[in-house]
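Input sequence (347 aa), recorded before submission:
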Amino acid sequence: METWEQMLLSGITAPEGLSSFLDIDQSDIQKVTAGYPMFINPYYLGLIKSKGDAIYRQAVPDIAEITMTEGTADPLNEEALSPVPGLTHKYPDRILFLVSSRCAMYCRFCNRKRKVGGAGMVSAETIREGILYIRANKNIRDVLLSGGDPLLLSDSELFRILAEIRSIPHVEIIRIGTRVPCTFPQRVTPALAEMLKGFHPIYINTHFNHPAEITPQAGLACSILADAGIPLGCQTVLLKGVNDDISIMRQLMKRLIAIRVRPYYLFQADLVKGTSHFWTGLKKGIEIIAGLQGHISGMCIPRFMIDLPDGGGKVPITPEYIKGMKGDELIINNYLGKQFKYPVIEE
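Predicted structure, token format:
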């Protein structure tokens, strides 16, 4: 039986690997991958049912990545907020720490499109400097490991990093941002989960964008992690042509809960150069959240978030239910648009 490392060796990095079963323009893909690398592992490749479907759009390069020039390479201003390479310190008590430069599939809408898959994004030296920075800053209580994908490290590499961080007295919480349970669930083994649970409190936020990604294999990966006592959340990105539809989102959120993953955020796509063909208007996200409210369980409903440009941080955007005030009563619409009155309680 193949190990997960052996499976990754069969990943596709060039258009020739796609052309045998997909009708693609090899020259267009070649132009895109000259600047933005492609990697699609065999499992995620197998989820593609037809050209242009939701899985295809996330994984296969599109010429729009280099012909549409809107956006900027680093819209969240991560580089300016990096006191040491590979570590972003945006909020007072928590940091983002890049520990891997690889992913099991290079998402075409990635907000680190400028660097993921590139040489030198993460090194032993950047990891060492990052840990020294965390150790020296006693206000840091929450460390989010990201990349690339931290779960693309070997168990032993990840163990060493986690052990270093957990040895720092002022670090209370460790989080891991990973798309592996969705894009490459074979990586999630009982041995990995057993190792991770030695570092509690540890949390994992994963990333599913479409119901077709929730397969038996993905469900098993999430069960292995949940059974190890690791809370799982999902950060979905709103993407044109992938999930910008209320019915698709309802299916996705209900299926996430069924595999013990709590919908956490629905992100407005970041304004990254090379991704504008995925952008939606803000009204679309508000419409989708309103279309979830009341129609599915409250614990299935994520918060709709914008990560503000230039390092402004994340802010929630919510549908407007309060329509005004009449006398000492608020006028409020419910999820069906029906109007109700609610008394204003004075303190």
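Checked by second reader. The chain is about 30% helix and 20% strand.
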